[in-house]
Design a protein that fits this description.
The complex is a heterodimer of chains A (110) and B (117).
Chain A: E1 4-7, E2 10-13, E3 19-29, E4 34-39, E5 46-50, E6 54-55, E7 63-76, E8 86-93, E9 98-101, E10 105-109
Parallel strand pairs in A: 2-10
Antiparallel strand pairs in A: 1-3, 3-7, 4-5, 4-8, 5-6, 8-9, 8-10
Chain B: E1 3-6, E2 10-12, E3 18-25, E4 34-39, E5 46-51, E6 58-60, E7 68-73, E8 78-83, E9 92-100, E10 103-107, E11 111-115
Classes of the chains: A mainly beta (110), B mainly beta (117).
């Protein structure tokens, strides 16, 4: 089973700064099968990125995803106050179907 | 608009079972897989399994095999998740979520299941 390791565990930045979040897989993951989510306290997660780099509907273009193989990155180009939250990566593996989440990165206000 | 509405909070004793429902609306129910994901207090997201509402086929996380059952009722556009032999570690918020492109795009509001003696 593929394990996803996110780093850092906590990232402290100020509004207006650039955020770079990492997701590393224990085995190669198809880019088509890597997604990112944002979760705020008391809320369900929200899909940000699917297929490693495609933004979901309604997601601002300051959010971008990149990477391939075992290393994937979520970048927030210029942090807005509402972007401070926990971020999860997720991968899909087939035969049998299994979905795995990373442990999350907390993005907090510095 | 797509909506997933889940049943209310549950309190169960260890060893009991719980069944959570998720009613879908705003889209063709049989055209999208449905996932169940849970989140223990203060912890991350854990994928539990997936059901194809069209044919009813399922795939479960290995960790939960034998304790989890996912079913659907196409007449009411509702999926169900039943978890048996509950233990304290099963205390969590349980989410249903619609699958799309190897990801999940819409989520239910979550159902808190508390396991306590």
């Amino acid at each position: 089973e593929i394990v996803l390791t996110q780093s850092p565990g906590t990232l402290s930045l100020s509004p207006g700064e650039r955020a770079t979040l990492s997701c590393r897989a224990s085995q190669s993951v198809s880019s088509s099968y890597l997604a990112w989510y944002q979760q705020k306290p008391g809320q369900a997660p929200r899909l940000l990125i699917y297929g490693a780099s495609s933004r979901a509907t309604g997601i601002p273009d300051r959010f971008s995803g990149s990477g391939s193989g075992t290393d994937f990155t979520l970048t927030i180009s210029r942090l807005e106050p509402e972007d401070f939250a926990v971020y999860y990566c997720q991968q899909y593996g087939s035969s049998p179907p299994v979905y795995t989440f990373g442990q999350g990165t907390k993005l907090e206000i510095k | 608009q797509v909506q997933l509405v889940q049943s209310g909070a549950e309190v169960k004793k260890p060893g009991a079972s719980v069944k959570v429902s998720c009613k879908a609306s705003g889209y063709t129910f049989t055209s999208y897989y449905m996932h169940w994901v849970r989140q223990a207090p203060g912890q991350g997201l854990e994928w539990m399994g997936i059901i194809n509402p069209s044919g009813g086929s399922t795939s479960y996380a290995q960790k939960l095999q034998g304790r989890v059952t996912m079913t659907r009722d196409t007449s009411t556009s509702t999926v169900y998740m039943e978890l048996s032999s509950l233990r304290s570690e099963d205390t969590a918020v349980y989410y249903c979520a619609r699958g799309v492109s190897a990801a999940v795009d819409y989520w239910g509001q979550g159902t808190l299941v508390t396991v306590s003696s």
